Amino acid sequence: MLYKAGVAMSKANGTLPVSQVAAAAHATVRTLERKFKQAAGHTVKDVSGLMRFEQVRNRIWHYPGSNLAGLAQWLKASQANILFENTSMDPHTGQPAIDYIRTALSAGVHVVTANKGPVVHAYHELRDLAAANGVRFLFEAAVMGGAPIFSLFREALPVAKLERFRGILNSTTNLILTELECGSSFEAAVKKAQDLGIAETDPSFDLDGWDATVKVSALATVLMDYPLKPKDVVREGIRGLKPDAVQSAPMMGRRYKLVCQAEKHTDGTVTATVRPEQLSNDDPLARVDGATSIVQFQMDVIHGLTLSELPLFLEDVQIAHEAYLSREALAERYRNAQGL
């Protein structure tokens, strides 16, 4: 651009009208913008917005005390339309995600999150705040990430009253129980879940039933319109199960599962439990292996509706197949022992 300007100045003996200089500069900048968009797929405005976004984000990172004010500035600087909230979940308070989501919705920004905490502890407030500002508060992946539970009720069953639900909502514990049936030790089963990437380095949140409990609370809060908190759910994890008991249960035609359920009573209250149960083989929940999840809904207009989230990993399909073969072999041994 400087070279072209020098040539033009030479031809004009060192004098050019300001309007001509401005027009030439404008045309050159537009050409550069067009070439940049063709090469990068983004406009200069996009990049300048991203640069402002990065500056504010870095400030939030280095000065966490200014998080909320910084987030509002961040959203304004980046001209964001959607905020994807991705903080770790606090099952007891839902923070800091609630404050972040509240700030975004107040700024007229849509929010998408897989965090169950804000749903459990502030769903009604955030739903109403989103409506007041003409934006959406979406959290479909909070429970059974790949299954459209919340949107199904919102879009297809808006007048149905959910009376009861029952399911397996924690894929980690279901995988561990499947591995135990196949003869693995508890430690080896946990490591298997970690290797597949579905269990954290510290799997306590899954093993002690907290993840399943928060999911039950989220479903009851949104679908039953009842503010059920995790502390109100009767909770028991799988740590107390003995591997040999889990392995021998199929010999008697039964299986251990971490069953989640909630029921809305005629007085409007909701009671819920998360605990290991022995299920008969003809129970649909007993047929779910590996990292698969399942939930059954009972409504006033539909007695039974079941959603299942199939395995995400090819290896998980193999785990389920091996569990089926192992279970059948144990059942055959039991039948032979009983002379059946």
Structure notes:
The protein has 340 residues and is of the alpha/beta class. The chain has two domains: 44-142, Rossmann fold (3-Layer(aba) Sandwich), CATH 3.40.50; 159-337, Dihydrodipicolinate Reductase, domain 2. Helices cover 49% and strands 16% of the residues. The protein contains 13 helices and nine strands. It has helices at 2-11, 18-40, 44-62, 67-78, 97-106, 116-132, 149-156, 171-181, 186-195, 204-207, 210-223, 243-248, 314-337, and strands at residues 82-85, 110-113, 137-138, 162-168, 234-235, 254-264, 270-280, 293-299, 305-309. The strands form two sheets. The chain has a six-stranded mixed beta sheet with strand order 5-7-6-4-8-9. A three-stranded parallel beta sheet has the order 1-2-3. Strand 6 (254-264) and strand 7 (270-280) form a beta hairpin. The termini are far apart. The model is unreliable at 47-53 (pLDDT under 50).
